[in-house]
User: What shape does this take?
Amino acid sequence: MEYEIIMTNKESNRHVIIIKLIRKKINGTQAAKQLKLSIRQTKRLKASIIKNGIKGAIHKLRGKTGNNKLPEKTTKDAIKYLKEKYSDFGPTFAQEKLNEIHKLKIGITTVRKIMIDEKLFKPRPRKKSSEYRAWRERKESCGEMGQFDGSYHKWLEDRGEECCLLANIDDATGKVTLKFDINESTLSVFEFWKEYIKTKGKPIAIYLDKYSTYKINHKSAVDNKEMMTQFQRAMETLGIKVINAHSPQAKGRVERLNETLQDRLVKELRLRNISNIEDANIFLKEYEKIFDSKFGVKAKKEGDLHVPLTKNELEKLDAIFSIHSKRLVRNDYTIQFKNQWIQLAEIQPTGVLKKDIVLIEERLDGTLHIGLRGKYLNYEILPSRPEKVKVLLPMLTTAKSEWKPPANHPWRRHNLRNANTQLIRRNVQV
Assistant: This one.
């Protein structure tokens, strides 16, 4: 009976060396050195080949089912769930959901292989970075620095409107604070940081990009320290250092956070069928704990460097996190602000003079507060002033006269005299 035996080169070489040993062409010590095995292992291999022939050189588990092979039912269930629910998931995230929701104990490598075989996942080729960037060590303590950014994305996919995720990640621990809003406006950022500081305290520094909400990108802003945005002014008042990144790679931790959330958070919202910002923000409180447990790290030094608010700062927090604008008091004690006319009351807590510069605060609750010399003024908003009517007068035109002056008219004589003079000059030149 003929049959094929499949051997590796290593097994074939072992068989040749053991045959030499059996035929006493070499001794046991020489065979062990050539095989790079101990003398005891060489003796066992020799005995196996004497007993089983060439099969004795082959690994005993060759052709047998592995002990850790998945049951066929588990594999079929995994393929079913991957196609029905997790077709656009990455292998790692899909494996987590198969384990958490469906209780399928499958390794990440196995899920990755299944998804590649079923054409649900295509491995990305590695990119070679042509630009050198030095690695920066994490900060040592929690609260020493936070990296902040806003990410516009279809977080709710087709179930809701497009929104912006405001995210802050602690540089030392990787713990995140998240909030959805319509956009990354000054008021949205103020609401985020007001809630953050009231809950956790003031971080030592905030690392963010050069977006216009945070810094004025103007050549004169470097020289003029008073030329600050609302965000920089608020942070300076609270004693928080603002660090502006000159490239997305400089604040890579929060950029990578956005990439991870655009993959994972979108799918978490889909699984829970969340379709509006309000429900999404409620879920984020739970998701922050889930994310921190998976990706958070231990800080190099223990302790929290967040600084709690003082009583004075807490009282002024609404004023700090408001949009400040300066306006001039007119002769009739009115102020013009955003197409509105504001009349200052006669009785005020402090003296108000014509041409005084007042500070208008637009609070997060939509109210206006007008300040002067540390006091808030009394006022009322006037109805809109009547607009001046622009009257377009028709252009006055007169009919063109058909009368022409005769040849001996003084107008004609003047022109004739000039023509004769030019003719005489030409004759003289000739």
DSSP finds 13 helices and twelve strands in the chain.
